[in-house]
Amino acid sequence: MMRTMVKQSIKIIFITEVFVLASFLFSFEVYINMQVAFLSSLFVILGASLAYKKMVTTQVASGNYEDDRDLLDTIEDPHELFEDTNENDKQIPVEDLDFKQIVKEEKAKIKTFSMKSAKHGARGSVSAFRLVPYAFLVLGFIALKNNELLDLTVYLPSLMIGIVAGSVSSKSLNA
Predict the structure, then answer these.
(1) Contact criterion met (CB below 8 Å) for 46 and 166
(2) What is the DSSP code string of 50-86?
(3) What is the pTM of this model?
(4) Could you read off the pLDDT of 96-126 as tens digits, one per residue?
(5) Which tens digit of pLDDT belongs to each residue from 148-172?
(6) Over the range 127-156, which residues count as b (16 or more CB within 10 Å of their CB) and which as e?
């Protein structure tokens, strides 16, 4: 099954690459701009997708996830405003409530920034799957600019070709 997903991704990338190679018929400048932009955006999308998949897989394997609410409840009530309340809470008159204590309890429920959460966020963003494609994007752009080959009217739309090809490929790989 994995082999067919990889074959589908290679087929998508190959068809798109043939389209990019056909731009060589217009001129070398058009071709090199399309090639660098296409590969840059393709690598960025695939790298981000693979890094995210790896991060999710390791979190699931380690058991560091909360599975307390289903997706539909989260979408319909993201702040848990309509949760069932205790019967005793409904019967307490407003005059008897200690608002300072209620505020303290609610503040305690708020998740604060911690080193653990910072490490978790940094682990996904410092992955080689993400850093190498962005380095290729920046260095490719600089190389085109320094060699006076950069044509933004070709480069920017060509980024979209790589984004679409990368998105479709990553969906077929992660399915």
Answers:
(1) yes
(2) HHHHHHHHHHHHHT----SS-HHHHHH-TT-TTPPPP
(3) 0.67
(4) 677 788 888 877 777 666 666 666 666 666 7
(5) 999 999 999 999 999 999 999 888 7
(6) bebbeebeebbeebeeebeeeebbbeebbe
Q: Which helix (H) or strand (E) holds 12?
A: helix 2-22
In a domain, 85, yes or no: no
The per-residue pLDDT of the chain, averaged, comes to: 81
The domain tally of the chain equals: 1
Closest CA to 111 of 126, 125, 121, 124: 121
Range of the domain at 134: 2-64+114-174
- Among 170, 169, 161, smallest CA distance to 53 is for 170
SS percent in the chain: helix, strand, coil, step 5: 80, 0, 20
